[in-house]
Amino acid sequence: MTNEEILKFIDHTLLKAVSTWKEIEQLCEEAIKYGTASVCVPPSYVGPIHEAYRELNICTVIGFPLGYSVNTVKALEAEKAIASGAREIDMVINITDVKNGNFDRVFREIALLRKACGEKILKVIIETCYLSEDEKIRLCGIVTEAGADYIKTSTGFGTAGALLEDIYLLKKHIGEGVKIKAAGGVKTREDLVRFINAGCQRIGTSSAVALLTGKDATGY
Known about the structure:
The protein is α/β, with parallel strands linked by helices. Helix content is 45%, strand content 16%.
């Protein structure tokens, strides 16, 4: 697999709280130059990026990184992001609902975000580092039933990021048509290839462009 092929799987990411516009500009210019799948940025930067870089596929995060905003707020946040130019939404589920066994609430939240996103891509972050195997399997069914486009392992801000064993588990239990995004901890070229070969259609990372091109990383 060539570097150019790998970069097409990358959501080029900058989500640190102190991200500056200069860093965001660098991220966007790298994404355009190297052909990444998207840039993944804070919601506050969606509008300015859309104005400055009309050709870019913009992904943003909702309910990030802890997921415990109320679902109506998440839906409004998603609608605003899409109106501002986002084409992809990465939402964090309310993990407390999972831990309390309130899976109906999880389904309703994802379904609400699915409606808010319309035809735009919806990725559902389940934050695997906090979940049991049974919870991960249960969420595969819920994400599928609610109509999301992707199940995503992690925010990158939890206690651990993506693990290959989780990719194999998710691939086994998600429904037809649901894709997988890994995020957090995918740091080497070998990691990138392994995760892609395991079944990931997207990888969220701040380091892939620097790693594969030798350019300075924006990082987080």
